[in-house]
Amino acid sequence: MNDSPALEPGYFLDRLQSTDPEVHAALADELRRQQEGIELIASENLVSRASLDALASVIVNKTVEGRPGARYYGGAAHADRIEALAIERARRLFGCAFANVQPHSGSQANQAVFLALLEPGDTVLGMALDAGGHLSHGAAVNLTGKWFDPVRYGTDAAGLIDLGEVERLAHEHRPRLIICGGSAYPRAIDFAGFRRIADAVGAMLLADMAHFAGLVAGGAHPSPLPHAHVTTATTYKNLRGARGGIILTDDADLARRLDSAVFPGVQGSVILNAVAAKAVCLGEALKPAFRAYAAQVLANARCVADTLMARGIAIVAGGTDTPLLVADLRPLGLTGAAASDGLEAAGLTCNKNAVPGDTQPPRVTSGLRFGAAAGTTRGFREAEFRQIGDWIADLLHAMADAGGARDKAEEQAVRTEVRALCRAFPIYPGLGT
Ligand code: DSN
Fold first, then answer.
1. Closest residue (by CA) to atom 7 of ligand 1?
2. Which of 131, 162, 161, 127 shows the shortest CA–CA distance to 145?
3. Per-residue pLDDT reduced to its tens digit, 115-130
4. How many Å apart are CA 260 and CA 257, to the nearest integer?
5. How many Å apart are CA 240 and CA 250, to the nearest integer?
6. Ligand 1 closest atom vs CA 351
7. CB 258 within 8 A of CB 113
8. How confident is the model at residue 2 (pLDDT cuts 50, 70, 90)?
9. Beta strands of 16-109 (E only): which ranges?
10. pLDDT tens digit string along 237-285?
């Protein structure tokens, strides 16, 4: 019997529910929110129960720094096995020679690329935020915008990347790094065209495939890897895994610089339970069923876009080639903030998002971004997503007809139907009981 006064009784046995009811209650409420609502945030998904097992494992106790086989701490044999599995699976899944699976997020993966390739003050050509770019691609408020010299390309009147503009800016500003990919750009990107421009001005090309990595893995979207010097991604969006980032390349010298940039450059110890969960999701994505998932995500995203357009709602770039789509609410006279609040009350969670040329501040915006990855994971196909598109259109038109005021009765009516649909497609049975 261990009667040490320093050991709280039950420390290794008692579950959260009994030791910390406040945190347990918040987590239980979040589980219910996910079970009873439809998740349309493009950067979210529903991880497998196996991923949850990995996340909640005792590897969370282990501290390591460095790479598998070259650690700065002892006792790393099993950590090495886990990280080596994640690396090997990432390489196999995306068909590349080198992978770093340690970045805590996509932003930190991009920061590591900046550190590996650039000197402070260097010029970087990336997509503007309102056109669909990401904060970590040189936005003024991000360290990539504060410590480097960002030049931004946008989209044309159709909402598409104009490679002519990219080429003109590249020749004018001679960036050391060009970035393609973003957070809210829905169309396929001409990766070969970007590489041609990068080569012409002596720049490196970074492809950030965070928002379509799962489709690349599942064969439902062209891969940027044959064209980019380095590719980054997140694992928690349509790749359907735990939160985190990865960096991929075929260049051995670049891989060494990227590894050093991740650690000790921008990160310290590895979040090993996240790496274990990354290994799990990458393993899942290597299975044949993931190809069907990726194809269905794309079909579902296109179904929502088509449904909304048929109901008179403007969709940026006229549709999508990825898991996400962006509605432009300016013709309806609505803001993204008010519209997302109304949809959330109805059980449809999405995010307000800038649209090209947006004049509203970031906390307001004129758009909504939707994603099909999480709904597809719970089993929705086109019939369900067509219904979701109709609910969204009903709510947006009701608000527009009321001059922007929310229609609480309509929200509650949709909420009831959303709950019923969710009950027919249950998630995490038995979890939290
Ligand atoms: N980059 C943010 C997004 O796209 O929502 C978080 O992943």
1. 43
2. 127
3. 999 999 999 999 999 9
4. 5
5. 24
6. 5
7. yes
8. confident
9. 38-39, 66-67, 70-71, 98-100
10. 999 999 999 999 999 999 999 999 999 999 999 999 999 999 999 999 9
Establish whether residue 320 lines the binding site of ligand 1, counting it when its CB lies within 6 angstroms of any ligand atom.
no
Helix then strand then coil, % of the chain, to nearest 5: 50, 15, 40
Yes or no: say if 156 and 131 are a contact pair by the CB < 8 Å rule.
Answer: no
Q: What are the Cα distances from residue 162, in Å, to 168, 203, 304?
A: 10, 18, 25
Q: Are strands 324-328 and 367-371 parallel, antiparallel or unpaired?
A: antiparallel
Structure tokens at 100: 């770093």
pLDDT one-digit tens code per residue, 7-59 = 888 999 999 999 999 999 999 999 999 999 999 999 999 999 999 999 999 99
Which tens digits make up the pLDDT trace of 353-369?
A: 999 999 999 999 999 99
Look at residue 100 and give its three-state secondary structure. strand
Q: Determine if ligand 1 sits within 6 Å of the CB of residue 183.
A: yes
56 secondary structure, DSSP code: T
Q: pLDDT > 70: what percent of the chain?
A: 100
CA distance 227 to 192: 6
The dihedrals phi and psi of 352, each to the nearest 5 degrees, come to -65, 145
Peptide bond into 264 cis (omega under 30): yes
Q: Is 45 in the pocket of ligand 1 (CB under 6 A)?
A: no
Beta-carbon contacts of residue 123 (< 8 Å; ≥ 6 apart) = 148, 149, 150, 151, 173, 174, 175, 176
